[in-house]
Structure to design on (88 residues):
């Protein structure tokens, strides 16, 4: 099963570790440091053409990847839940 993040980006649901609110979570210095380090390491993929609202932490083929997304975390979680309810 897959989750559409926007801008033609689709990820496997099984790869998702967490979906986070970008504004709320970056209040923490540790999260800001983590995202800065991830950006320097090339782990970040920006799939947002607008103001980003969330980030999705994934593990793909033994590598971590962070998707910066313009969709709200609630929207992404709702999409993932609807996929489970529809039997996909």
């Amino acid at each position: 099963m897959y989750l559409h993040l926007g801008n033609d980006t689709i990820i496997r649901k099984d790869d998702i570790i967490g979906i986070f609110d970008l504004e709320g979570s970056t209040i923490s210095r540790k999260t800001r440091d983590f995202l800065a380090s991830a950006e320097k390491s090339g782990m970040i993929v920006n799939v947002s053409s607008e103001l980003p609202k969330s980030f999705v932490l994934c593990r793909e083929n033994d590598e971590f990847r962070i998707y910066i997304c313009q969709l709200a975390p609630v929207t992404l979680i709702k999409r993932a839940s609807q996929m489970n309810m529809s039997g996909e």
